[in-house]
Amino acid sequence: MKHNKIAKEDRHKNLVTLHHSKNPIAEAFRTIRTNIQFSSIDNPLRSIMVTSTGPSEGKSTIISNLAVIMAQSDKKVLLVDADMRKPITHQIFRLPNRIGLTNLLIGDEEQETVIEKNDVPNLSILTSGPIPPNPAELLNSNKMAQLVESLETQYDIVLFDAPPVLAVTDAQILSGFVDGVILVINAGKTNREMALKAKHQLDHVKANVIGTVLNNREIKENNYYHYYYGNK
């Protein structure tokens, strides 16, 4: 139990946009927020999925910080942990995960009981809930499509943390329900072939990939990590 508690605290410290708002990394997230806003002036994006090529590339940290930075701009934001295989959003925000998205999709809970507030104003969290035996089937259901549509009417922006593209089909399925997709690429881990393969799989299902985030690129002069957003 003690070891798990430490792990949760360490993940919470990854919310640089919450704890270190003047850090250059926090400023990079503000740039990402601005780029998203300007990329969809005529048709504002109401739902965005963040995924990665493979595991452990930082997608959950990226989307959690993006959720905080968007909430700080007075937007009503909902962060949904749709990674029902290895969920960690509840650890990042120090929330319980007894019930969540899984329960909504199987119909044994209502939104009012599973969507939680936290210490970030304007930000609500929907954790994954219990890990189901069939995550892809749950995501590829009419209930999921209806849920996304419903949430888009209740929040200014809904952010979905999805499993890696190359690991399972979940991200490809979920991409069909959201307005835009951001692909996280780890500078020290993802090779060009992996990134292109992930992009090809998203293009194959006609996902609207609005940009990429380059994670873990170290800038030597100030020893910070650099996040890049673009549409290439």
What does this structure look like?
The chain is of the alpha/beta class. It has eleven helices and eight strands. Strands 3-4-2-5-1-6-7-8 form an eight-stranded mixed beta sheet, with helices on both faces. It is globular, with a radius of gyration of 16 Å. The model is unreliable at 1-9 and 220-232 (pLDDT under 50).
Summarize the helices and strands and which ones pair or pack.
Elements: H1 2-12, H2 16-19, H3 24-38, E1 47-52, H4 59-71, E2 77-81, H5 89-92, H6 101-106, H7 111-114, E3 115-117, E4 123-126, H8 135-139, H9 142-154, E5 157-161, H10 170-175, E6 180-186, H11 192-204, E7 209-219, E8 224-230
Parallel strand pairs: 1-5, 1-6, 2-4, 2-5, 6-7
Antiparallel strand pairs: 3-4, 7-8
Helix pairs in contact: 3-4
